[in-house]
């Protein structure tokens, strides 16, 4: 039997299978669309059973499999490297159970973050992980251990995954984790799979932890005359016992791109940098925390402490922060970088980036999650030719990643490694750790059919 | 060369090595002392280099290795199964770095929890994990992913481990994790090793997350006329957005054992059960939360809402809660059980336990962490002969664990599996998951020298 016949025997619905040249380019890439792979079949899976049957077949025939959520990743994690089958989860997007009694909801992995957030909030609950891209799938969020703005107070996706239904490379279906809060019962397979970028197993269902919805939330914009005072104030904010939800930083020159893009103006254009803080909880608690932080920042050189006067103004402030990548992209192609450094090294790292961009003449727009050391850079192509861009980008990025590692940092805080960051990750990661990762990979996926040559997989 | 000569060539200090029959019994057991293993050498390691050299030697010669923290475990995790070498970490107990700027402290794995807690609190910081046994080592806490009272608000040991220096079976030394807050850079080896009970690697150094010390803390005792109303109120407490630090439950009949043991009296002896709650944070916040919870519990059938009138009385209340295991042990040998069930199943499970103990005539004293479904049982031997105790205990425990799994529960919430719970864990765990765990074990420790036949290791 041919490959096509085999696939159609497993997926008994032709409308959910596309072969070869019929596969649209966007399914062979990530959200940036620059890296494009090849595949022999694209299957829109409808059930765990189908995924299991596909993997069993693929494993027996050593066919590569690329799981795909909403394809919003920025690092080429959904770019098929060896042909084979793309399993798309967009049709597996149901909420299977809402269980207020255990503070959990169980969903299929293809559900979009925004749909899940809206659902739980309609029930008076809250799903804290809040990555910028709300159209990502929950399965994708788990595969990259996505972070987001609220990580300072609430942690990252890992902290909200109670259990996962997964399909192993050989087609076995099992659950790792459970609705239980505590677990000291054998190896934490769940935690191993979270953040593994689809290299160990395919996630089909997710039990997610939800919490009661905070009653009240307030954001504040804090301008500083220089970046250094802004960043060094972050630690004082974190130490003040005021439990901030988000601690974002953005340089004035970056805000200007956002202002131009949106037509919105930030106050204090004379500032060199801003901190953008959010606090949530009970009203009195938030008000008390705001007072504490007001004192902290003003004692540390803040030019002002601006609480947006209306919900509309608040939305405007966040709109500028939210549009930065798009604002850069409106001017040029850009390479998104998602480094993380220890929180006391953010200022030194940003300074290094600022010096480097001057030295090498490549614009690197920096902003990000100061409260957890997660620095986003948009590295701007400008008018470079394809060849120049490729060569110069790699050279400059090697230098930037190397500095981050020298400061104790890592390649990725929340986007994952995928294809795009693999070169830097393999270069900077200790050989022992790479060997451990690859030994584990081989132990669970002996024929290396799952997302091979992605991330750490040699 | 002989084994002894080899070991003394690695550890060039005879005062830190004990051989064969010279090894004291307590080093061959856990804190209960019932299961006793055999070993050829006990080494008090002084450095990572020594641990590395020992493992390299052991791996080359296929000699079993049993890492040992303070030996306070309750499940036989430190009972050597195949002779070989015990590596004791009690001399590797230094604080290596206190880094307020990144909210971390780096320690050797043999440091005791109580010493570490005292150290960070003296610096104005706080290490939230709070297992009952304060004389446990931090390395042991990490190996079992220890929990404790404060887990409801603060999470468990896993949530406070930023990085680990580990020695692999072949003697390689590496770091997994780092000081970074976010990490989406390859497989989470750190999270795999946490809770692995010494089966994958030996932990030598730990970077721990610390947080600013809460300003204020208040506990409250809430008596209920029946267990069911007490337990069903727990979820209402958790839903009330009042962020409790601890939510403990204890039945009146269990309190009576503690009262007898300590001479301290709880109020409301007519109650059938008590909840013991703690709140911490800023003073106003705690007071507001107490008001909220007072309303919640009184609306749900609480007999009273007793805030201990003095620090001494508070200490008394916690003393009774803290002594329960010892109170039981004063009357008879007991088997400690550390089951976990989803939080909405605690009442049903306790009811089942109460019925079972009546039916089979074996006393099972239940108390525990209601806020996270972690139920502790002390199963009492009474006047049974060794043989009767062994046979009846296993039969009754099979029944209890089976019920817990039926309710979606797990063998252990915080003690780990070790030797004592292995029978039940292997019986209840899905074969696919056991296979995954054992495949990973073999990938990292091909000769199975580390804690073999412990926990999940087949």
TrEMBL record, chains A, B:
Oxidoreductase listed as a keyword: yes
Keyword Flavoprotein attributed: yes
FAD-binding PCMH-type domain span: 35-213
One Gene Ontology MF term: oxidoreductase activity
Coiled-coil regions, chain positions: none
Keyword terms: FAD, Flavoprotein, Oxidoreductase
InterPro entries: FAD-bd_oxidored_4_C, FAD-bd_PCMH, FAD-bd_PCMH-like_sf, FAD-bd_PCMH_sub2, FAD-linked_Oxase-like_C, FAD-linked_OxidoTrans_Type4, Oxid_FAD_bind_N, Vanillyl_alc_oxidase_C-sub2
Cofactor annotation: FAD
PROSITE patterns, sorted: FAD_PCMH
Superkingdom: Bacteria
SUPFAM superfamilies: FAD-binding/transporter-associated domain-like, FAD-linked oxidases, C-terminal domain
Pfam families named in the record: FAD-oxidase_C, FAD_binding_4
Record's protein name: FAD-binding protein
């Amino acid at each position: 039997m041919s490959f096509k016949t085999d696939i159609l025997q497993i997926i008994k619905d032709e409308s959910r299978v596309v072969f070869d040249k019929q596969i649209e380019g966007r399914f062979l890439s990530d959200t940036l669309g620059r890296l494009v792979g090849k595949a022999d079949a694209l299957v829109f899976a409808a059930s765990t059973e189908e995924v299991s049957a596909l993997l069993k077949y693929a494993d027996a025939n050593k066919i590569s499999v690329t799981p795909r959520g909403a394809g919003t990743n920025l690092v080429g994690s959904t770019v098929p490297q060896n042909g084979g089958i793309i399993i798309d989860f967009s049709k597996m997007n149901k909420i299977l159970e809402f269980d207020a009694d255990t503070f959990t909801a169980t969903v299929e992995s293809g559900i979009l973050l925004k749909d899940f957030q809206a659902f739980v909030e309609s029930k008076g609950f809250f799903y804290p992980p809040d990555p910028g891209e709300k159209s990502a799938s929950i399965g994708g969020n788990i595969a990259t251990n996505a972070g987001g703005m609220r990580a300072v107070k609430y942690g990252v996706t890992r902290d909200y995954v109670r259990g996962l239904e997964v399909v192993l490379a050989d087609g076995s279906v099992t659950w790792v984790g459970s609705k239980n809060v505590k677990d000291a019962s054998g190896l934490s397979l769940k935690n191993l799979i979270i953040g593994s970028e689809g290299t160990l197993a395919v996630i089909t269902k997710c039990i997610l932890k939800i919490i009661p919805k905070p009653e009240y939330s307030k954001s504040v914009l804090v301008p500083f005359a220089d970046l250094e005072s802004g960043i060094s104030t972050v630690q004082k904010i974190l130490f003040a016992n005021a439990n901030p939800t988000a601690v974002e930083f953005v340089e004035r020159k970056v805000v200007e791109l956002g202002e131009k893009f949106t037509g919105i103006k930030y106050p204090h254009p004379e500032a060199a940098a801003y901190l953008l803080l959010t606090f949530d909880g009970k009203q009195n608690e938030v008000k008390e925390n705001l007072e504490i932080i007001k004192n902290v920042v003003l004692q540390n050189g803040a030019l002002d402490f601006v609480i947006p006067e209306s919900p509309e103004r608040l939305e405007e402030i966040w709109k500028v922060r939210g549009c930065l990548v798009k604002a850069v992209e409106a001017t040029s192609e850009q390479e998104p970088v998602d480094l993380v450094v220890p929180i006391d090294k953010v200022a030194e790292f940003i300074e290094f980036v600022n010096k480097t961009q001057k030295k090498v003449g490549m614009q690197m727009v920096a902003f990000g999650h100061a409260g957890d050391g997660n620095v986003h850079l948009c590295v701007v192509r400008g008018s470079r030719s394809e060849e120049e861009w490729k060569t110069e980008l790699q050279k400059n990025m090697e230098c930037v990643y190397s500095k981050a590692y020298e400061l104790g940092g890592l390649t990725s805080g929340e986007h994952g490694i995928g294809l795009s960051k693999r070169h830097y990750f393999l270069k900077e990661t200790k050989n022992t750790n790479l060997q451990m990762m690859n030994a584990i990979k081989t132990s669970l996926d002996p024929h290396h059919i799952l997302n091979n040559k992605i991330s750490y997989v040699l």
